[in-house]
Amino acid sequence: MENASRRSVVGLSALAFAVCFGALTALRELQAAPPTSVQSLVVDVALLLLVAAIAYFVYRGGGAIESWILALGPSLAFAFNLFIPVSAMESIMWVLYPLGSGVLISVLLGGMGFGVGYAGRTLRKAQGVVESS
């Protein structure tokens, strides 16, 4: 069961990567970029929603590795979309920089979501123990 659950988490993360990367690339290619302040607001809201989704997933019983995997797809999409327009490198570093950044971002976001969700799950269990006493 855990293997099937992890496969669905990987699939969801891959779908999030495809949607985020596709949307960000389309906006860049159509030159429909809003002002920097609006872009920052959109990214901040997207990251908060991602952390909230991971926290809810963990609250419902998800684990630390799954929370990191969920954060990996959108984090890689953000990182690759940021590095592609400014990259003039024709080497393996072109892939390693955004890959490393995306993994670091996903560890941070997944960790934050896991912490919030785990705290909520622990408080829910503690409240259930107190009510049953």
Automatic annotation (TrEMBL):
Name the record gives this protein: Uncharacterized protein
Keywords annotated in UniProt: Membrane, Transmembrane, Transmembrane helix
Species of provenance: Haloferax elongans ATCC BAA-1513
Superkingdom: Archaea
Keyword Transmembrane helix: yes
TM ranges: 42-59, 68-88, 94-118
Lineage: Archaea, Methanobacteriati, Methanobacteriota, Stenosarchaea group, Halobacteria
The keyword Transmembrane helix belongs to this UniProt entry's keyword annotation: yes
